[in-house]
Amino acid sequence: MISIKDSSEPFRAFLGSILSIIEGEPVEPSQFDPSMQLDTIMEDTDDGPLPEDDIDDGSGVYVGSSSTSNPPMMTCSQAAHENINPGLMITSSSPDSPESFQLWVHLDALSNNTLALPMSDRNDLNGKQRLWLTRFVGSGSTGRVWQCHFDDSDDLFAVKIVELLCPSDADSRQRLQNEFNMYLALEAAYKSGQLCDRIAPHCYGAYEGDGVNIIILGLCDGVLNAWDELSAPEQAQVYKLVQDLHSIGILHGDLEPQNVMRAIGGGFHLIDFSQSTRHNCKENVVQNVTTPLIDQLHTPRPAAGRNDICSELQTLRNSLWN
């Protein structure tokens, strides 16, 4: 039971007016007392923000949450980490609304985040970049995806968000952390020269706040609805992406059309690595097929029982060339 009998007269009148419109409830009449004395609230001296002032009270619009509670540490000093990633502010408020009406969520980089944000011309007073959510793109088993941009920039990005609202959301948070670990592995492969072409969208880091975790990614140009949308050369491109992924020791774990996106400017990217695992692929074609030529890929399907074709590549092969 919630009672408002001890609430102030103005609040009871305000709540009654709302209920009278929405629920058709009768409004309790207010008694006007001309001799009523109003209290004067003395303004305290501003001694600067208190530690509790930085705690989000839940009044803002939470835009995501995910990632593990104890992420693995990378081989970079905490000081360097703090200099590269001072933090982030994110909002779904309109840039046209007054600043006093804008609701921001403050985020810090995950402890294993070694990836840098895109450059922005404007930060807040604490050096944090500001990210604006502009359009809802879609949702999946792990979180929601929004289109976004940074302050004073027309470049668009995607942000994957998981909110930790109930105990069951801890699984989504763990999957997002796992996904970020795979993006770190991909980035290491690009820098070392193991991969020449990008398998996935560019990742700009992972951040966490009070009940919300996010991953910031490059924007793609639409998701596949079915495998038969692909032309024969496109089928070969997608198959080659998965081969390259296996060649650096990653099993995607959820190869469906909705996890393949068209890259802006042409080609494809794999997305949603939340169920990915490390994998030692022994399939011969990972080494043998180095170019996406159709005649190389349309070879007779291996006989049942051959162990040089791993199950994920075999399933993809059957889906594309059935």
UniProtKB/TrEMBL annotation:
Catalysis performed (reactions): L-threonyl-[protein] + ATP = O-phospho-L-threonyl-[protein] + ADP + H(+); L-seryl-[protein] + ATP = O-phospho-L-seryl-[protein] + ADP + H(+)
One Gene Ontology molecular-function label: protein serine/threonine kinase activity
Residues annotated for ATP binding in this entry: K160
PROSITE patterns: PROTEIN_KINASE_ATP, PROTEIN_KINASE_DOM
Keywords annotated in UniProt: ATP-binding, Kinase, Nucleotide-binding, Serine/threonine-protein kinase, Transferase
EC number(s) reported in the record: 2.7.11.1
UniProt cross-references to InterPro entries, sorted A to Z: Kinase-like_dom_sf (IPR011009), Prot_kinase_dom (IPR000719), Protein_kinase_ATP_BS (IPR017441), Ser_Thr_kinase (IPR053235)
One GO CC term on file: cytoplasm
One protein family per Pfam: Pkinase
Domain Protein kinase: 131-322
Superkingdom to which the source organism belongs: Eukaryota
Name by which UniProt lists this protein: non-specific serine/threonine protein kinase
Organism: Russula ochroleuca
